[in-house]
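Reminder to self: tokens first, then the designed residues, so the page reads top to bottom the way the pipeline ran.
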């Protein structure tokens, strides 16, 4: 729900290389109004924060580096939460002066010849369409430029309503 409008897909803050689909929200490269300037500033700031945090987790935990397209959302959530908790524990431990270094290369996964097909131990579950098909039931919903523009305008208004009057 953004600016009192309901959206059925999640959105992701991206840079300009992504297409203008309903789920990708890019910055405004040449903002013309104060609302657009504020949106661009907030979008770029938040996107960079997320990229930095994710980069730290990818550098520390190999499981975060590898593709997870076939995993269930709940499993991904648990993995990310565990990595964040472990990262915070490591940072806290290092802050206290304990800074012994380990060679983590033996734990990292390198390039593999695995396929992206995942077989479940329960054969009936292998007949279920991929999780991606469940997430994006209609390709047109994903690529809808009108939804993209409506969401972006709603986000611009939402940010302005929250932070626009503050100088």
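Designed residues (167 positions):
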């Amino acid at each position: 729900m953004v600016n009192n409008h309901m959206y059925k897909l999640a959105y992701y803050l991206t840079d300009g290389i992504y297409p203008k689909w309903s789920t990708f929200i890019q910055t405004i490269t040449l903002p013309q109004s104060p609302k657009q300037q504020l949106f661009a500033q907030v979008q770029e700031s938040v996107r960079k924060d997320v990229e930095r945090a994710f980069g730290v987790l990818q550098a520390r935990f190999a499981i975060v580096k590898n593709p997870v397209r076939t995993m269930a959302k709940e499993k991904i959530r648990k993995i990310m939460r565990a990595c964040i908790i472990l990262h915070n524990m490591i940072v806290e431990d290092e802050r206290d002066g304990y800074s012994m270094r380990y060679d983590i290369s033996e734990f990292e996964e390198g390039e593999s010849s695995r396929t992206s097909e995942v077989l479940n131990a329960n054969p009936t579950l292998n007949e279920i369409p991929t999780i991606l098909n469940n997430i994006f039931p209609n390709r047109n919903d994903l690529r809808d430029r009108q939804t993209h523009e409506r969401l972006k305008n709603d986000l611009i208004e939402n940010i302005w309503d929250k932070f626009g009057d503050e100088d």
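The longest helix spans residues 34-60.
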